[in-house]
Amino acid sequence: MKLGHNNQLSIKVRINIIQNMKRALFLFSLFSSIFAEDFITEAEYAKLLYENPRGVGCSSCHGSKGEGKVLATYIEKGVKKNLEAPPINNLSYEMFKEGISKPSKIMPSYFLTNFESQSLYRYISSFKKSQ
Ligand code: HEC
Q1: Integer Cα distance of 97 and 86 in angstroms
Q2: How far apart are the first and last CA of the chain?
Q3: Coil, strand, or helix at residue 71?
């Protein structure tokens, strides 16, 4: 029958629409659950920041655990000298903050937010505790 066929067709269309809506809802809830939680933890974020803040990583000079590093050696008046980035995993937060904000000839200036400085400080200091 023609009528019956039409009804069947419209049911099929409706089922299709409902399935599409379900799919959309599923995708929506999937996305919102991803965005509801942080992609990365604060420690992971600080690690990224430490290794690559604004393009120049702290780790390339201060070492991956803030242990300090010899950047270069040179001879001054016949004496061999080291150019060093000091260890920074053993500082008070005040010293740490001062260290990243005071002008330096070697270390680049960073304009970090309080949250960034605190995350970095916690991250780097954690290495000292675990030694
Ligand atoms: C290009 C190398 C270089 C990079 C990159 C660098 N530093 Fe430094 N940093 C130094 C040197 C060298 C010093 C020693 C003081 C000076 O000569 O400027 C220093 C000093 C410091 C101090 C003071 C230490 C103290 O004992 O008072 C802190 C804190 C510090 N850096 C943290 C950081 C952090 C955090 C980063 C990344 C956001 C960073 N540095 C990136 C080279 C670097």
Answers
A1: 14
A2: 83
A3: strand
